[in-house]
């Protein structure tokens, strides 16, 4: 089993999770499933539902413009198992692919009376009444079928439903949604020459007993004493620029929390409202957290208490678009962030500490519901960089260097596969070559004329392939015998066929290894640098990238 650079901390993290504690770190920008793939979720949220932690989201790397809504389950908020799609998006195109959105911002709740799981996701038609597609299933993670459309009470002409949240409190369900006037955007493109392009306030809509329809009026969320509807010249304009809302309750206080209007931007204001009722009147608060620490709100995970009489945790969750090393399709290679909320004596939410090394520990019960635990390629690998490290992204188009990740095999046997996390950087004419190789020693590796022993090669396909939009594992089948102590490596460089292009047209993940004692070493050769250098001209142009390694794993059986 490989030795993670964060082994001591993370071993405690993993073991205490079973005992009822989980630690979140601001340095952890990326979360991974047990096969090593980065959690590919945009517009998603983590929920505690029916005895398990469930992460529902929209992937960016399915290879299509719009992707199926998928989920991951976890026993401990650390190890995530991919469940696959909740339903087939193409088969439900008449309900989901009707305009802006694709049953987006997916949310699921459970109805104890009907014993049905209920799915909501927005799909804006651009004309007609504001509707929200609703699906139901007998299973939490699959089998959802169309059950109709919910029309909120507040649906004036030209308005539609965008970002949404779902909450069940004391058996009653509430939809929180961003309503926006798409008529003005479609007619002239904006309300102002620069901003705002539209007004989008948040409303709370009670749902019927079966959770499928609206029940009663919609209640706007805005500072008490201010007006509604909201216009560009309204003194409370900020209440009309409110997205990705989520409703939760702590004690006798209700909260709606979300982001200032933002389209997958690298950081926006966190807004929070509190009231003694889910329908207001509301007290507005700007939560000081560095523009959501470079992210956009996804909601609040309500972690149940670990003991009777204890208070559960409220964990604010954001998509961290500022971590994405590229633009493209809603910055699919972004990370995620979690911050347990703290509350002042007046019920207001304390500022969130965005410090890079800040940690937050909560009490959290392990999951009680059984679910299929399929996979484990990364967490069960023989050698590797680890699945829980504080990885950050780099892009080869900026670093302009080829990479060579090396290690010493800890086991004799058949090296069946090697995996490395890569993401599409930008359209580029040069695909990337991944070579798994062996070499005798470091001196030989650095010497001129060195030729490796090739164990396996993979040419990563053309860069227009949308399936590379997030940091998924590129698996290289090797099936070669290796010996314990043998020096092995992974080479990442542009394809050798045709003119050699001195850049990696992809992004990769890196972590610091200082003080870990690992035998893993990362080497790089800079753009076009193919001659000796140094004070006496005796140094190899292939240099060690000290105390760094990319995210990778290797399996020997």
Automatic annotation (TrEMBL):
<protein>
    <submittedName>
        <fullName>Beta-xylosidase, secreted</fullName>
    </submittedName>
</protein>
<feature type="signal peptide">
    <location>
        <begin position="1"/>
        <end position="19"/>
    </location>
</feature>
<keyword id="KW-0732">Signal</keyword>
<dbReference type="InterPro" id="IPR023296">
    <property type="entry name" value="Glyco_hydro_beta-prop_sf"/>
</dbReference>
């Amino acid at each position: 089993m490989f030795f993670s650079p964060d082994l001591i901390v993370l071993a405690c993290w993993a073991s205490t999770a079973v005992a009822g504690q989980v630690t979140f770190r601001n340095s952890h920008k990326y979360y991974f499933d047990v096969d090593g793939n980065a959690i590919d979720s945009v517009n998603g949220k983590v929920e505690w539902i029916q005895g398990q932690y469930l992460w529902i989201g929209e992937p960016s790397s399915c290879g299509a413009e719009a992707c199926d809504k998928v989920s991951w389950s976890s026993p401990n908020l650390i190890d995530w198992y991919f469940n696959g799609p909740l339903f087939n998006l193409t088969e439900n195109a008449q309900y989901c692919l009707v305009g802006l959105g694709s049953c987006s911002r997916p949310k699921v709740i459970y109805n104890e009376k009907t014993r049905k799981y209920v799915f909501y996701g927005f799909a804006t038609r651009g004309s007609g009444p504001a509707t929200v597609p609703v699906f139901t299933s007998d299973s939490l993670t699959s089998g959802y079928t169309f059950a109709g459309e919910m029309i909120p009470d507040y649906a004036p002409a030209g308005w539609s439903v965008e970002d949404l949240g779902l909450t069940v409190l004391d058996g009653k369900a509430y939809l929180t949604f961003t309503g926006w006037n798409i008529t003005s955007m479609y007619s002239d493109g904006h309300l102002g020459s620069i901003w705002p392009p539209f007004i989008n306030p948040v409303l709370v809509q009670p749902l019927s007993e079966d959770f499928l329809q609206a029940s009663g009026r919609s209640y706007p969320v805005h500072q008490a004493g201010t007006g509604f509807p909201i216009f560009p010249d309204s003194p409370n304009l900020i209440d009309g620029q409110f997205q990705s809302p989520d409703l939760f309750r702590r004690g006798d206080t209700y909260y709606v929390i979300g982001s200032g209007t933002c389209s997958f931007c690298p950081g926006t204001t966190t807004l929070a409202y509190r009231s003694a009722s889910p329908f207001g009147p509301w007290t507005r608060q700007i939560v000081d957290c560095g523009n959501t620490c470079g992210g956009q709100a996804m909601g609040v995970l309500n972690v149940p208490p670990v003991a009777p009489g204890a208070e559960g945790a409220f964990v604010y969750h954001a998509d961290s678009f500022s971590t994405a090393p590229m633009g493209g399709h809603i910055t699919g290679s972004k990370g995620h962030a979690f911050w347990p909320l703290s509350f002042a004596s007046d019920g207001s939410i304390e500022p969130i500490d965005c410090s890079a090394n800040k940690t937050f520990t909560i009490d959290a019960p392990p999951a009680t519901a059984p679910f299929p635990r399929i996979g484990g390629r990364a967490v069960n690998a023989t050698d590797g960089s680890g699945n829980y490290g504080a990885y950050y992204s780099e892009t080869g188009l900026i670093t302009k260097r080829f990479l060579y990740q090396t290690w010493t095999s800890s086991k004799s046997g058949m090296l069946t596969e090697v995996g490395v996390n890569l993401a599409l950087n930008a359209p580029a004419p040069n695909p990337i070559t991944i070579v798994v190789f062996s070499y005798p020693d470091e001196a030989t590796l650095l010497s001129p004329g060195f030729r490796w022993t090739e164990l396996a090669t993979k040419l990563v396909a053309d860069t227009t392939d949308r399936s590379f939009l997030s940091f998924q594992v590129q698996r290289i089948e090797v099936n070669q015998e290796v010996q314990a102590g043998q020096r092995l490596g992974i080479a990442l460089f542009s394809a050798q066929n045709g003119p050699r292009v001195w850049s990696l047209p992809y992004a990769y993940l890196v972590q610091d290894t200082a003080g870990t004692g690992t035998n893993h070493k990362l080497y790089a050769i800079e753009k076009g640098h193919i001659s000796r250098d140094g004070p006496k001209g005796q140094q190899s142009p292939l240099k060690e990238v000290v105390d760094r390694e990319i995210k990778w794993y290797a399996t020997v059986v």
